[in-house]
TrEMBL record:
Quaternary structure annotation from Swiss-Prot or TrEMBL: Homodimer. Interacts with LigD.
Keyword set, alphabetical order: DNA damage, DNA recombination, DNA repair, DNA-binding
Coiled-coil regions listed: none
Pfam family, one: Ku
InterPro entries: DNA_bd_Ku70/Ku80, Prok_Ku, SPOC-like_C_dom_sf
Domain Ku: 57-186
Swiss-Prot/TrEMBL GO biological process terms: DNA recombination; double-strand break repair via nonhomologous end joining
PANTHER family: NON-HOMOLOGOUS END JOINING PROTEIN KU
Top-level taxon: Bacteria
CDD domains in alphabetical order: KU_like
Protein name as it appears in the record: Non-homologous end joining protein Ku
């Protein structure tokens, strides 16, 4: 992995009787997001977090804190941190493959966090043999290992030159969709309404390009910080109007007309595309202005 990236875990990947040395690297991080500190309005100073006894209202120091499980309202059994630590499974530093399954069988609602899985220099041949065999067979591997103090199930798939290992939610952690969807009415949509919706989909077809997705909330935060530094106010946000049921067909007709008009417009040029996303432009503006004023918003360390 490139310098500056630290492995989150190192161990072995075992499939059958073959083992190879591997490392896990974080594939997705929130470290670049703008973050805020909690400030005392009266003094402008940063505040510190303290723990208070809910009954005596006295401060409880760290050395006097322990874990507890509520068995009844306000009644707890005390569990020492050492007892909690003793329940952590002993790690043998091995990702052991239990089975290979068709990629199409995996429901992504079970996906938790992705990690890049790379080989060490001595195990590249075994690692690449597994990667290419999985690609050709169009399968993913289900493996288990003690990762980050818990026994975890991991889904391993070919990804570019390496593999990607995604920790999985357990079945008890994933809620059934039946409860969420139970109030959706049973309606059969057909005729012009369905045709217009299909037309809009047809005119908006594209390709998955993560680089084209702007984090509008992050860009808005950058604009806010920049405006505060410059002593300006932000323009009021436009109110989003939701189509009413009796206006839905009219909205679909209007959208279909707008789609047809958009097809005749010149497409975005490469020069415009290279100007960067809205968030990037806004963040650069904040960084530049804040650098001169010494008031840059703090970010988490990467």
């Amino acid at each position: 992995m490139a310098s500056g990236h630290r492995a989150q875990w190192k161990g072995f990947l075992k499939f059958g009787e073959v083992s190879c040395g591997v490392a896990l690297y974080t594939a997705a991080s929130t470290s670049e997001r703008i973050t805020f500190n909690t400030i005392n309005k009266a003094t402008g100073n940063r505040v510190s977090r303290v723990f208070i006894d809910s009954e005596t209202e006295e401060r409880v120091e760290r050395e006097d804190q322990t874990k507890g499980f509520e068995i009844e309202n306000g009644q707890y059994i005390i569990i020492d941190p050492e007892e909690v630590a003793a329940t952590i499974p002993e790690s043998n530093k091995t990702l052991e493959v239990d089975a290979f399954i068709p990629c199409s069988e995996v429901d992504d609602v079970y996906f938790d966090k992705p990690y890049y899985l790379t080989p060490d220099k001595m195990s590249a041949d075994a690692f690449l043999a597994l990667r290419d065999a999985m690609k050709n067979s169009k399968v993913a591997a289900i493996a288990r290992a003690v990762l980050f103090r818990r026994m975890r199930t991991v889904l391993i798939r070919p990804h570019g030159k390496g593999l990607i290992a995604t920790t999985m939610n357990y079945d008890y952690e994933v809620r059934s969709s039946k409860k969420a969807f139970e109030e959706i009415p049973k309606l059969k949509i057909e005729g012009e309404m369905l045709d217009l919706a299909k037309h809009i989909i047809g005119t908006k077809k594209g390709e998955f390009d993560p680089a084209s997705f702007d984090d509008r909330y992050e860009a808005a935060l950058a604009d806010l910080v920049k405006a505060k530094i410059e002593g300006k106010s932000l323009p009021a946000r436009k109110k989003v109007e939701v189509s009413k049921p009796n206006d839905l067909l009219a909205a679909l007709r209007e959208s279909a007309g707008m789609m047809r008009a958009a097809e005749n417009k010149p497409k975005r040029t490469a020069a415009n595309a290279n100007k960067g996303s809205g968030r990037e432009r806004a963040t650069r503006g904040v960084a530049s202005k804040a650098a001169s004023s010494g008031a840059a918003p703090r970010r988490k360390a990467s």
